[in-house]
Amino acid sequence: MKKIIFLFGILYFVLNVNSYAASPTPTPTKPAIEQQIDDLKDRIASRVAQLKLVEKRGIMGTVTDVSDTQLTLKDVKGDTRFVDVDELTKFIGTTKSGEALGISDIKKGQDVGVMGLYNKQSRRILARVIEIKVNPKMLGGSIATIDSDNFIIHVATDNGDQVQVEFETTTKTVSFTKSGGKLVRSGFSKLLVGESVFVVGFLDKTVKDQVDADKVIVLPDFVKAPSLPSSPPIVPSTGSGKKLTPITR
Q1: Which residue has the higher pLDDT, 238 or 91?
Q2: Backbone angles phi, psi at 90, to 5 degrees
């Protein structure tokens, strides 16, 4: 009887072992692993292609066209370059009053430097940094008219044009005479029609073609004949700052 019970025990153990062996834990099949490897290879190849297509590049050029999201430049070689601007683009540069510059301050004919991501396929640059170079405006001629109320003069240039020049509180005015032989302090109230002047300033942001004077050199010894071109109407400044009597330095 004991032998029979022992045999049944061995049979039960063998059957259970075979049952566990018949259903092993599932393992990844070879085709599935190969598919994962192929997918990884494709992603790496795509990323490498992107890195080869885009590179960091910097250019300098003159603005030929501008919009809210794009600049068109002519570089130093004379080639046309297209620059895209987005919300991450940083602008470097300040106005003469210390205000930060933006794309709205960029005008045609202005020189800028661009650093960004160049796409070899589209041949466009996505700007990351744009440095705006604010070049001063220089002109010479004789005083055609004087508006003492608004501190504005019109300068008749040698080519027959007249440029509106506004004096500000920071404008430095000096005079040079042959007898004195040196520059001396002067002021707006001492200006006379016909006197020769040399003006260094910046184009006004609100009044078209107006120059805001930074420095004015008056040459009272060089007075031109009063036959000057007719004066255009004076356009007062629309800026927020008050126009006070310019200081003399």
Answers
A1: 91
A2: -105, 135
- Specify whether the CB–CB gap between 108 and 63 falls below 8 A: yes
- How many other CB atoms are found less than 10 A from the CB of residue 177? 14
Q: Which domain holds residue 214?
A: 137-223
Cα 191 from Cα 143, distance rounded (Å)? 8
Q: Closest by alpha carbon to 71, among 105, 26, 100?
A: 105
Residue 85, H or E segment = none
Q: What is the pLDDT of residues 90-149, one digit of tens each?
A: 998 766 556 677 888 888 888 899 999 999 888 899 999 999 877 788 999 999 999 999
- 12 is a domain residue: no
- Taking Cα atoms as reference points, which of 129, 91, 134, 95 lies closest to residue 111? 134
Q: Are residues 93 and 143 in the same domain?
A: no
Backbone angles phi, psi at 110, to 5 degrees: -85, 150
* Residues in a beta bridge with 61: 75, 112
CB 65 within 8 A of CB 72: yes
Non-local (6+) Cβ contacts of 148 within 8 A are 188, 189
Q: Are 238 and 215 in contact (CB under 8 A)?
A: no
| Residue 184: both structure tokens together | 């001396």
If one counts the domains in the chain, the total is 2
Question: pLDDT for 115-124, tens place per residue?
Answer: 999 998 888 9
pTM: 0.50
